[in-house]
Structures are given as C-alpha cells and as structure tokens.
Amino acid sequence: MLVMKGILPEKGLKLSFEPFELQLKHVFTLAGSSRSTTPVMLTRIEFGGFCGYGEASMPPYLGESHKTAAKYLSALKLEQFSDPFRMDEILDYVDNIAPGNTAAKAAIDIALHDLTGKILNKPWHKIWGFSPEKAPDTSYTIGIDMPETVRQKVKEASGYKILKVKLGSRNDIEMIETVRSVTNVQICVDVNQGWTDRKKALDMIFWLKEKGVVFVEQPMPRENFDDIAWLTQHSPLPVIADEAIQRLADVQKITGMYSGINIKLMKCTGMREAHKIITLAQAANLKVMIGCMTETSCAVSAAAQLSPKANWADLDGNLLISNDPFLGVKIIEGKITLTNEPGIGIQLAVNNYPAT
Ligand code: MG
C-alpha cells in the first residue's frame, strides 16, 4: 500500500468474530453422520459507521471448527485496507494468507459484501443486476429417519413445492414410499456418495423418476470418476455434483462428468467466487443449484442474493435451526423472496444474537 509521507491513511476495516452454536430443530442424519448442533463463527466488519455481518458454518465432517476459524481469523490484518470496495484485493489477500479454511474465508467475504452493499444502500442481487422474481423455489430437506418421523417432517414441510430427500442408507425405497404416502410435490434426492454399484444406482434412478424425482445429487463417491460419468450418460435424471466440487477450479474437472453442480458459499469461500462459478458453469452448459449448510439467515440470505441465476435452490439451512441470530430472506409459498434491504438483506434477531 502506498502511503504518502505525512498523510495518514483513513482508518482501516475492523474485524471482530464470535463463536456460536446452532441448535437444530431435529437430529439431522445423512449417509455417514448424525448430529443436533452445528458450530458457526459469526463475523463483523466495521467501517465508516457501517457494519457488515458474516458467518462461517462448520459441519464437523468438513474439517473446520471454532478453533481453526479463530486461528485463521486472528491472523488476518484487515485494518491495512482503508477502502472496502477494493474487494478483489481484500479477498485475494484473505484467500492467499492460508490454504483451506473455506468457511472462515466465506465469513469475511459475506461480511464484506454486506458492508459494501449497506454503504451503497443496495442489495447485492440488485448490484449484480439480477431479476429477483427469477429466484427459484427452495427445496426443504428431509433427513434419513424412521417412517413415522419422516411422515411428520413432510407434513411440517407442506408449504414447500420441492423436497430434498436424503438417501444412501439401507431404507432408500422406504424413504421415498413414505414421503409419497404424504405428498405429491416434486422431490429431489441427495445420496451423499452413498451408492457404490453403478448398475444398481441406474436402476434406482429409473425407479426414482417414476416417483416424481427431478434430479439426483452426488449418487456415488466423488472419486469414482468413471462410474459417475457412465451414470450421468445413462441417467434419465440430471446428476448433480456436491461433494465432488468445491471451488472455481473444480468446475473444469467435472464438466462432462455431471449434469450440474451444487454451489455452497461455505465450500467456495463466499459470494464473489460463487458468482464466478455460476458464470463458468453456465458457460459449460452445467445446471446450477445454490445450496447451503445448516447455517443462520446470514449466510442463507447471502446465498439467496445469487439465487435468481440458479436452476434450483436448496436454501433451507436457517429453517432447520431454533436459535437463528438473524432475520433475513423470506420463503413465501416455497419461493425465495428477495427484498430491497441493503447488503445481504439481514437484520439482527436481538434475542438470539450474542451480546458483544
Ligand atoms: Mg448434498
């Protein structure tokens, strides 16, 4: 940074962060794990009387934690930046200071977008020039469970026009039959890499199509490249990559192997890179889903700003928790409804936001 002699730079960006534990409304089970809380790190970037909010959501299986996020965030010296609109410069610094830490990096990216949007007094979907009415319906996730619980959850989800059913355990057929005994809405399925035999997987996908399923997410382990390419080639439904794709550079690797990708801010370091991934994926003729972890209305509202560009959205992470510290994007009759609230479109829920 060039500072002329005798002229003091403007005061720089001020970062603060706070660990927080999300309480899940239901124990959440997917192929391989089960849990009832999710650790998140809440971030704030202050500048010129404005405050932007961000979040890192860190489901344990992804390898980040309160400890790793605190270590990473403590190493950042954002006070060296005195212009929050130099986002490329700031976020390149944030990305290059350490490898990995994608959720912690997203917590900075989201807070910076919230901050700059607030200074401009515009929401990001508007800054990007998107049409908010093009935002899709969001799916609502039904985790692997006993039939009685599944029936109950599907009834609770009656306002949603598409359900995401988790498969990949021994009771896949029972899960779908149970959901179908309660509702006729569209279903998509997420196998979380749970199937290992490609021929059985293909038979299952044909059966799922008859049951009104519209796409299949990560049916097989991400390293089974040949099996997945074969499956996508023969599948009557789109096959979407989730665990197989993380960042921008991965898009090229999976082109031709999958029909589409599930983009999540916590995987790809935030809104800036997610926007680039969408552009690249659509140029490569891949379908785009914008997804999330279990996270607060902060990160979900940030992802929702990108949703008008997506074919599908799976932005229900905030709906699965009972202590959301933010108010943000609204789901009205199952559809993501963006507002003119500036930045990422959130406010504090004062009863849940931790005292600072
Ligand atoms: Mg998934």
Structure overview:
The chain is an alpha/beta fold. It is 33% helix and 24% strand. The strands form 4 sheets. An 8-stranded parallel β-sheet has the order 4-5-6-7-8-9-10-11. A 3-stranded antiparallel β-sheet has the order 1-2-3. A two-stranded antiparallel ribbon has the order 12-15. A hairpin with a 2-residue loop joins β13 and β14. α2 packs antiparallel against α3, α5 packs across α6 and α7 packs parallel to α8. The protein starts with 13 loop residues before the first strand and ends in an 8-residue tail after the last strand. The structure holds magnesium ion. The site of magnesium ion has 6 residues, from loops.
Which fold name fills CATH's third level, the topology of the largest domain? TIM Barrel
Alpha-beta classification: alpha/beta
Distance between the termini: 32 Å
Bound molecules: magnesium ion
CATH homologous superfamily of the largest domain - what is it?
A: Enolase-like C-terminal domain
Largest beta-sheet characterization: 8 strands, parallel
The CATH top-level class label of the largest domain: Alpha Beta
Q: Approximately what portion of the residues adopt beta-strand conformation?
A: 15-25%
Spans of at least 5 consecutive residues whose pLDDT stays below 50 are 1-9
Order of helices and strands: EEEHHHHEHEHEHEHEHEHHEHEEEEE
